[in-house]
Amino acid sequence: GQNIDQPTEMTATEGAIVQINCTYQTSGFNGLFWYQQHAGEAPTFLSYNVLDGLEEKGRFSSFLSRSKGYSYLLLKELQMKDSASYLCAVRDSNYQLIWGAGTKLIIKP
Amino acid sequence: GAVVSQHPSRVICKSGTSVKIECRSLDFQATTMFWYRQFPKQSLMLMATSNEGSKATYEQGVEKDKFLINHASLTLSTLTVTSAHPEDSSFYICSARDLAGDSGEQFFGPGTRLTVL
């Protein structure tokens, strides 16, 4: 079956760095997405990886290793507004998005 | 970036009534739109994939006669929840895929919170 694993919840301190991991097992691979979702709102796109390596976009970076079925989202200089759920999603061979359950990130002052 | 609108943003209805939710891609054409449902503290669950001009593809366990989907144009898809019941209360989110983009990224609408009394 298809499976996306990510931690349920993480806590970090304002100004610090946090890494949210995602491992996946899917039928085929056509890219991995990270989305941010604040409570009661729709997800917003953060990053897209299709080749191995690190993609940097401001305070957020995303890494992919296809051979390991592994990705992480790195958030630097954490701000209180970064408190949200972070969803990892993999696009399979049918170009369907398979969603992880999301990681709730709690930022403390 | 691409914008997807959804209407209404919030609806409260009585049990047994039908509710229509519209999803529009405002500045791009979307041959494919997706409908998701999200219960509190749970992840997104794909309900159906909507293709312009053809029948929607429903995920296992989703009743196609209860959740009617119409994708009449490249910028509009509608989801109708027929004979809604309290257990249908949820956050319904649509997304549209921009095929012109490099990643075929999905852009999400703001969601519709449905409460069935």
Write up what this structure looks like.
The complex is a heterodimer of chains A (109) and B (117). In chain A, 0% of the residues lie in helices and 57% in strands. Chain A has 109 residues and is mostly beta strands. The termini of chain A are far apart. Chain A has strands spanning 3-5, 9-13, 18-25, 32-37, 44-49, 53-57, 60-65, 70-75, 84-91, 97-99, 103-108. Chain A is globular and about 40 Å long. In chain A, strands 2, 4, 5, 9, 10 and 11 form a six-stranded mixed β-sheet that branches. A five-stranded antiparallel β-sheet of chain A has the order 1-3-8-7-6, with no helix packed on it. In chain B, the strands form two sheets. In chain B, strands 2, 4, 5, 6, 9, 10 and 11 form a seven-stranded mixed β-sheet that branches. Chain B is globular, with a radius of gyration of 13 Å. The termini of chain B are far apart. With 117 residues, chain B is mostly beta strands. The model of chain B has no long low-confidence stretch (mean pLDDT 90). The interface between A and B is medium-sized, with 19 and 20 residues.
List the helices and strands and how they pair.
The complex is a heterodimer of chains A (109) and B (117).
Chain A: E1 3-5, E2 9-13, E3 18-25, E4 32-37, E5 44-49, E6 53-57, E7 60-65, E8 70-75, E9 84-91, E10 97-99, E11 103-108
Parallel strand pairs in A: 2-11
Antiparallel strand pairs in A: 1-3, 3-8, 4-5, 4-9, 6-7, 7-8, 9-10, 9-11
Chain B: E1 4-7, E2 10-13, E3 19-25, E4 32-38, E5 45-51, E6 57-58, E7 67-73, E8 76-81, E9 90-97, E10 106-108, E11 112-116
Parallel strand pairs in B: 2-11
Antiparallel strand pairs in B: 1-3, 3-8, 4-5, 4-9, 5-6, 7-8, 9-10, 9-11
Task: Output the helix-strand order of chain B.
Answer: EEEEEEEEEEE
Question: Which structural class best describes the helix and strand composition of chain A?
Answer: mainly beta
N-to-C span of chain B = 37 Å
Taking the sheet with the most strands of chain B, its summary is: 7 strands, mixed
Biggest pleated-sheet summary of chain A: 6 strands, mixed
Radius of gyration of chain B: 13 Å
Low-confidence stretches of chain A: none
| Beta-strand fraction estimate of chain A | over 45%
User: Which residues of chain B form runs of ≥5 with pLDDT under 50?
Assistant: none
